[in-house]
Every structure is written in C-alpha cells, then in structure tokens.
Design goal:
The structure holds two protein chains of two kinds. Chain A is an alpha+beta fold. Chain A has a single domain, classed as Cytochrome-c3 Hydrogenase, chain B, CATH 1.10.645. Chain A is built from 15 helices and eight strands. The radius of gyration of chain A is 21 Å and the shape is globular. Chain A starts with 20 loop residues before the first strand and ends with a helix. By secondary structure, chain B is α/β, with parallel strands linked by helices. Chain B has a domain at 62-196: Beta Polymerase, domain 2 (2-Layer Sandwich). Chain B is 19% helix and 20% strand. Classes of the chains: A alpha+beta, B alpha/beta. The interface between A and B is large, with 80 and 84 residues.
C-alpha cells in the first residue's frame, strides 16, 4: 500500500526520473479539472506512473471564519463549500448544531428538508453527468442535463429566492413554508425525470465509445476504497453497500423506501451506473415524501441567541459526493469554538493516485470526472 | 474540552444550560405537530406559517458529557489499562481519551480487533490555555458494527503524535491538514508538509492565537509596500 502513495514524489526537482519519464503539469487552469485542481503527472511515454494533487488554490479558511461568527451567521458560509449542492451542506450543518443543542426540527420541516435535499442530489448528479460526459467527448448530454437541472433550480428559486447558494434551512427547522404549488412542481419534475434518465442512458450506457472510455478505467477495489476513506458513490461503485441515509438515518429518510445501488468492478463505468441509479432512487424518495407532508410547525422553539451547552458533536449526512461530516465543539458561547468539516471531495480525491496509475493521460480526465470533486469543498 | 472541564478556559464565561431548556414541557420529542402528524396536508395550506406553534422541546436537561463504562470501554481498559485516560459520552457519542505515546498501537487494535476499519475524520482542536494545548481527534467508524467511536489524544506544542497513516491510509492528507492548520507533528508520517496553504506560509491559522488579520497585513506590507488598512 505504501508504495502507491502520492507523497513519494513531492518535488519535481528532487524526483528521480527514468530515461523515458517526464513530469507533466496539468492545471490549475485546465478545463477538465472542474476548478482549480493542479495535478503533477509522472509519465512514461503516455502512461501515468505517478501523480500528485496540489490543492489549496481555493482555500478560504472556512473553519477559521466559523470561529468568528455566531452559529446562525456561519450557516450561509457552508453553502460555499460544495456550491453545486448547497442545500446538502446546509442540511448537515443545521442538523449538527441541532444535535449539539439537543433540539430536533419538527416533522414537517424534516420532510421538506428531505425533498429539497434529494432534489439537490439529482441536480448535483446531473451536473456531474453532463460535465463528465463532456470531458470524455460526448457533447450532447450536458445540454439535456442542464435542461433538467434548471427545473430544480427554479424550484429552489421559488422556495427561497436563490438558485445556487440557497441557505434554504435554518437551525431548528425552516425559515420559509413550502410555497403554493411546490408539491405540483416537484411531482411534475419527478414524473418527467423518469423518461429523461432513460434518455441519458440511451445516449451513453450502450455507447461503444463511452463504454470503451470508462470500463476498466480507474478501478478502486472495495478494500482500497475503505482504506483510503472513500465515501458516497465512489465506495458504492466498489461494491460496499453503505449509505448514511440507511446506516444512520437523519432528516426523514427512515420513512421512505429506496435502494442503495452498488457496482461490482469499482471502475468509472460502475460509478456512472451507480449515480444514474441514485437519481432514480432520489426521484422515488421525492415522490414518496411529497405524498405525505405532515402538518405542523416548521421551526422548533429555540431562542434567537443560540448558546449550545458546552460539549461536542459529530454529525454526518450523505451528501451527493459522499459523507459530509461536521464536528462542532461548543464552549457555551454564541460562537462555535471549533467547526471541523469533513469534506467528501477532499478525501475522495486522495484515491486519485491509486486510480490513475497505469492509465493513459487521456484517462486522467475521465478519472477526475468520475470522482465528482468540487474544489470549493476540497479547499474550503 | 468536554473531557476535562476543569482545564477548560473558554474566552467567554460559559452561560450554561439556559437557551436550550427555555421552554418548559415534559413531552418527548416525538409528540410534535399537535397530534395531526400522519395526516396528509397540502403544503399550500401553510399551517404553521403565521404563528408557528412551538413543538415540545425535546429534552429536560441540556446534553452534557458523562462518564462511559460499557463493554467496549471495558475491553479497551483491559487491553491498555492506564493508556485509556478517560471514557466519556457526549450527545450519545462515545469518546476515548488515550495516551499520546500509544496512539498507533491503540489505532491498530481498534482496526484489527474492534473492527473500526474506517477512519472517517482526523482533526485537531486548540486549547491554548491548557497545559497540553492540542486535542487530536479521530472519528472512527465500523462498517461491520455500524458504530462510531472518537479517539482523542492531548499533545503540547512540539510533542509528536504517532501517525496512524500505516493503520488507515486515509490519514495521509488528514494529518497533513492538521499539520498545516495547527503545526502538530505526526511522527512516522511519510511526507508531512503543508497541503492547503502554500509552502512558504508563516504560522498555523487554526491556532487560537493566530489573528486572522496578521497574515494579511504583513503580506500587504511586504509585497505591496503599503498598509493594508484593514
């Protein structure tokens, strides 16, 4: 294991190169790195024999900022980590603080949260699918994916006024009641989505070029995935049937039926299939949830000034990219003493080196895409 | 920290259990929603929009850390004796404070014998007024048992913490981040260097004595030759 770690050629100047080996720099301004990821590749001809990810270009010190804000003031900041799945970030943070305070959001709020979070998962996966296919050379899906994603963003906009960095939830519940017609909007979207997903699959699943570019590329075994801390679709595609929504249910997930899709080979193609199936399952959850939104208040009775009792809590949710955890330490004041964010992208990206070795340069693009990283979250 | 309240020196005096316990009611948390819970109601009817009825507050006393002594802790104690300094539970989450020198060994045991095969997260907390200022915090998860456990060690500045990289390879970047942000040295780590910040960065930002403006003003002064004005 230790011979395949990224740290073994930390410095180009001191790296010993073989006769045919070169170092190739990729990024941070490269269209397929999805942000400001920089990768140093050690190549033997076209073959990758080593790699190192250089990150931190988007570091904003979110954890430090948290220590200088009140609990409520920090909530909008978490939206800026994984900015294509802001709703999920907000859910994790709000639930973590609620747990720290020992309160619970009312059932109605929990169900509405679940619906919005699942829509966000679909939106995140759609964005991933479109750009991933674009990276590999399939130009069509991105237009279809953005078409559907737009509908989700419209629902968010109607609900809270924002499309991307939504700040949709509040500590203790929700700020806004579901808007008039939200139920119909979600149902209409979900009804349409089923055939739309089939459309994407028609474009890609049996497509010879797609299969050729993704099958057997970037294999991550289940053992490696656990060792390297991978979560979310990445670990599920490697065959580990694990989803926090099932393992440790939060929000209202214990009330709904859904499957956890898994893969067998842990390659890029399996991760594609897992995410496609996850969209179907998210749609299923939305449809179940929209059927039965309990009545009642949307906000728990908490004070305007939040002072959680001293202590600490770790709470994690299944974000679209994997396990998003918040470890919050309170000292009894209005500001968190420490907020540690466990970002799924950051840890999934660690698997990159293992996945990329032995492949061609062109596959690097596919492997970055399949990890579904968001640099705002990697760097925080 | 929860584990040693007598050493804790929060910047503001802790105004204990007031806010969460403000609303008096004995009803358990499940009984929210005025009894109309399972009934389907269109969201358009906005039942709680105008004046939201307070749901029953979910607990009588605020959550606080308590000593823990279950089978798991007994097994750890039996195996490692005094190296398990404290066992507590906070918000129903188990926490073990262990001896710094034996962390690698305890980590190995946790993975092999107790089936905590997944290191979810590794991070640190700074308590500058304490004798040993850093808490290194490891959040473990067990796939077979579906259980979490938190390991903690105390370390003072410059005291090396054994690296758990050999036990859980995921610790590679996590320990680099803790080094980057706190300056904690992990002994045995294969390539401990900064990860998020540039190599030439001065100081470790998540330490409590690191002022958020310091770096900025210095950088502006040195590189632009003006006062930053912040």
């Amino acid at each position: 294991m230790s011979d395949t770690r990224a740290s073994d050629f930390s410095n180009v100047e001191t790296t010993v190169l073989g006769a045919d080996e070169i170092i190739l720099n990729m990024g941070p301004q490269h269209p397929s790195t999805h942000g400001v990821l920089r990768v140093k590749l050690k190549l033997d001809g076209e073959k990758v024999v080593g790699s190192e990810c250089i990150i931190g270009y988007l570091h904003r010190g979110v954890e430090k900022i948290a220590e200088h804000r009140s609990y409520q003031q920090f909530a909008p900041y978490v939206d800026r980590m994984d900015y294509v799945a802001a709703v999920s970030n907000g859910l994790g943070y709000c639930e973590a603080v609620e747990k720290l305070m020992g309160v619970e959001a009312p059932p109605r709020a929990r169900v509405i949260r679940t619906i919005l979070t699942e829509l966000q998962r679909i939106a995140s996966h759609l964005l991933w699918l479109g750009t991933h296919a674009l990276d590999i050379g399939a130009l069509t899906p991105v237009f279809y994916c953005f078409r559907e994603r737009e509908e989700i963003l419209k629902i968010f906009e109607k609900y809270c006024g924002a499309r991307l960095t939504t700040h949709a939830f509040r500590i203790g519940g929700l700020q806004y009641e579901a808007y008039d017609g939200m139920e119909q909007d979600v149902r209409r979207f979900c009804d349409d989505l089923a055939t739309k997903i089939d459309e994407y699959e028609q474009l890609l699943t049996q497509n010879r070029i797609w299969v050729g570019r993704t099958k057997g590329v970037g294999i991550l075994t289940a053992e490696d995935a656990i060792a390297i801390g991978a979560t979310g679709p990445v670990i599920r595609a490697s065959g580990v049937k694990w989803d926090i929504r099932k393992a440790m249910p939060y929000a209202a997930y214990d009330q709904y039926q859904f499957e956890i899709p898994t893969g067998q080979n842990g390659d890029t193609y399996d991760r594609y299939l897992v995410r496609i199936e996850e969209m179907r399952q998210s749609r299923r959850i939305c449809l179940q949830a929209i059927e039965n939104i309990p009545a009642g208040p949307i906000m728990a009775r908490i004070g305007k000034v939040l002072k959680p009792p001293p202590g600490e809590v770790y709470h994690s949710i299944e974000a679209p990219k994997g396990e998003l955890g918040y470890y919050i330490v309170s000292d009894g004041t209005v500001q968190p003493y420490r907020v540690r964010i466990r970002p799924p992208s950051f840890i999934n990206l660690q698997a990159f080196d293992r996945m990329v070795r032995g492949h061609l340069v062109a596959d690097v693009v596919a492997i970055i895409g399949t990890l579904d990283i968001v640099l705002g979250e990697v760097d925080r | 920290m929860a584990n040693d309240p007598e050493e804790k020196q929060p910047p503001v005096p802790p105004a204990a259990e007031k806010p969460a316990a403000k609303t008096p009611s004995a009803a358990p948390p499940a009984q929210t929603g005025g009894g109309a819970r399972p009934q389907a109601v269109a969201p358009t009817s906005s039942p709680g929009a105008g004046a939201p009825k307070p749901p029953a507050p979910p607990k009588e006393a605020p959550p606080k850390p308590e000593p823990l002594d279950n089978d798991l802790v007994k097994r750890y104690r039996k195996r490692f004796g005094d190296a398990i300094r404290e066992a507590t539970t906070d918000r129903k989450q188990a926490i073990l404070l262990v001896a710094r020198e034996r962390l690698a060994e305890i980590a190995q045991y946790s993975r092999e014998e107790e089936q905590f095969n997944f290191l979810t997260d590794l991070s640190a907390v700074d308590w500058p007024k304490r004798e040993r200022r850093f808490d290194v915090v490891l959040n473990l998860y067990s796939f077979p048992k579906n259980e979490r456990l938190r390991l903690k060690v105390h370390a003072s500045e410059g005291e090396p913490v054994p690296s758990v990289d050999a036990v859980w390879p995921v610790a590679d970047w996590l320990e680099r981040e803790a080094y980057d942000m706190f300056g904690i040295v992990f002994e045995g780590h294969p390539g401990l260097r900064r990860i998020l910040l540039p190599d030439e960065w001065q100081g470790h930002p998540l330490r409590k004595d690191y002022d958020i403006l310091t770096q900025d003003t210095t950088w502006v002064r040195e590189n632009l030759g003006i006062e930053s004005g912040q």
